[in-house]
Amino acid sequence: MRHRFELQVGPVAFRVGSAWAGPVAALRRLYAGYPAPAGACDFTVRLEPERPWRRWLRPSVAIRGDYMLPDAAPLALAHGLLAAEMGMNLQMALGQRRFLLLHGATVERGGRALLLTGHSGSGKSTLAALLGERGWRLMGDEFALVDLADGCFHPFPRVVSLKNQALALFDDVAGERLGPVLRGTPKGTIRHLRPRSEAIARMDEPAAPRLILFPRFGRDLAAEARPVGAAEVFVRLTQASTNYVTLGEVGFAALAALVAGTPASAIDYASTEEAVGLVEALWAA
Amino acid sequence: MGGVSDSRALVRLLRDPAAAREVEDWTSLLAIARAESLAGTLAIRLRGVAVAPPVERLLDEARQAAERQRTEALWEAEMARRALAPLGVPVILLKGTAYAAAGLPPAEGRSIGDLDILVPRDSLPRVEAALLAAGWEWVKEDPYDDLYYRRWMHELPPLIHRERDRMIDVHHTVLPLTARPRPDAGALVADSVALESGLRILAPADMIVHAAAHLFADGDLAGGLRNLWDIDRLLRRFGEAPDFWPALRERARHHGLEAAVSRAVRLACRLYATPAPGGWRGRKGADAAFEARLLARDGWGRERRPLLRLAFYVRSHWLRMPPPMLARHLWTKARR
């Protein structure tokens, strides 16, 4: 393809090809400082015109690659960066077999990892990004990569996708770490945030899980933490996994070990400050 | 890699794993192999060949994925066996699941999607009822499609299992009833071979005839490299028997599929260096166009040569039905 970019994020390497220069230029800028893959890439993502003439006429970016969804809607060229990010997520969700994949955010402190998982809109991504600015190492905001042999989490520190109101929380971050503000995307207003350099420098360092939290955000919710039983944790995590069924027996074993060895809580909060307070209290307990 | 025939690199490596030393762009090779559903096959072929650690890791992953697919496919076959056993009709596994169940060489690393079975045509209503009772349900609810399948196709409309989310295609012959060749479905069933489980597979020559029919007498050759690889692996195994080749010729003629089978053997020889007797080799007619169609993919996994592909797409409909019927069919489809 005309424009290409290769990227190593933790244990996974991507090759992104694009029919247009814009998305690749945005990726290069946003992922400055990430290592280049050594050898083969795990996944190929292609950003190409929905139909040949859509390269020039009302350009529309189809997200394709090694693994594809037949009915994925194309994006406007102005949202090409988002298309690339969605393309990488799609490869992971549909094609990743080396790790058990849990949809959620992970942060690390003192060599141990915290998993935040829940429905979209629960604020896990924002919360992890905020913790990443406050002394925690951000391991990833989209997927937790659970090692099938030893149960450790592998870092996957891609850029964080900040949505809507969350943008304002990161106004004082250095400008070079922020992508362009993308308005009117299918997910609302989006801006990407590059994790701090420590998170990138330590992308090869896995961490053993220590705590699982299910955050829930709501303006009228009272700040509160509740214990969650192991059976419920297990079922919730099967729903949060993109490849639990595909992996079969090894996936079951990895998930069962994670649930048996890691305490879990649900937390409700109405503001991010409350959430940070709850996380710190549960981590210290 | 950037040219039109990048999938040639995949073909070369499948044929000669030692060529792995010369591969520079593994990312492209893997993208092509995945697009052709040959990643697991390639990984098995390259087992034991020295490659860089990141490549070895990806190949290992592909091997494990293929192994899990095999387990799932065999389980699905067992589920169908249990659902159909009370009927006492012969149930013949086709394609990937058949190769896996019989331990035939194409199964090594092969991806297996749907479960394909062949049953005698007069048992179709009972088979359909038994599958519906055991948790399978219709994928398409459209009455035109349903009627079309039942009147003209070689299989029931596809069914999917509501809990396991796996599809089953129930065939009663190997080509649509609208196609010009009319394979002898009765002979396919009569000469099928029982496996230990009670499920059956086609006899060797019929298995080749079916694979060739599927590749060249039906469909537009998309994903054809994998189907041709199946044929190569089967021919290498069956071709060792002294009377196999004349029997294959005779059987292909009996089913009215001599042209498709001959072309399959010629192209397998050409692309995968299949050992075949002299009379089967060479290059004829439109072979070059078929070869170009099979190889039309670039290093990004994209299909190339849109006009050639279009020609084969048109051909697939031409083979499938007489012109007036084709016109009526396309008209109905277009008006939706």
Shape of chain A: globular
Assign the structural class of chain B, choosing from mainly alpha, mainly beta, alpha/beta, alpha+beta, or little secondary structure.
alpha/beta
Largest sheet of chain B: 7 strands, mixed
| Stretches with pLDDT under 50, minimum 5 residues of chain B | none
Query: How many independent structural domains of chain A?
Result: 2
Which overall shape of chain B is indicated by the principal axes computed on the Cα atoms? Answer: globular
What report would you give on this structure?
The complex is a heterodimer of chains A (285) and B (336). Chain A has helices at residues 21-30, 80-95, 124-133, 197-201, 230-240, 244-247, 249-261, 272-284, and strands at residues 3-9, 12-18, 43-49, 60-65, 75-76, 99-103, 105-109, 112-116, 137-140, 143-147, 153-154, 160-163, 182-185, 188-193, 208-217, 224-227, 264-269. With 285 residues, chain A is of the alpha+beta class. Chain A has two domains: 3-95, no CATH class; 99-284, 3-Layer(aba) Sandwich (Rossmann fold). In chain A, a hairpin with a 2-residue loop joins strand 7 (105-109) and strand 8 (112-116). In chain A, helix 1 (21-30) packs across helix 2 (80-95) and helix 5 packs across helix 7 (249-261). The N and C termini of chain A lie far apart (53 Å). The mean pLDDT of chain A is 95. Chain B is an alpha/beta fold. Chain B has one domain (7-334). Helix content of chain B is 54%, strand content 6%. Chain B starts with 6 loop residues before the first helix and ends with a helix. The model of chain B has no long low-confidence stretch (mean pLDDT 92). The interface between A and B is medium-sized, with 21 and 21 residues.
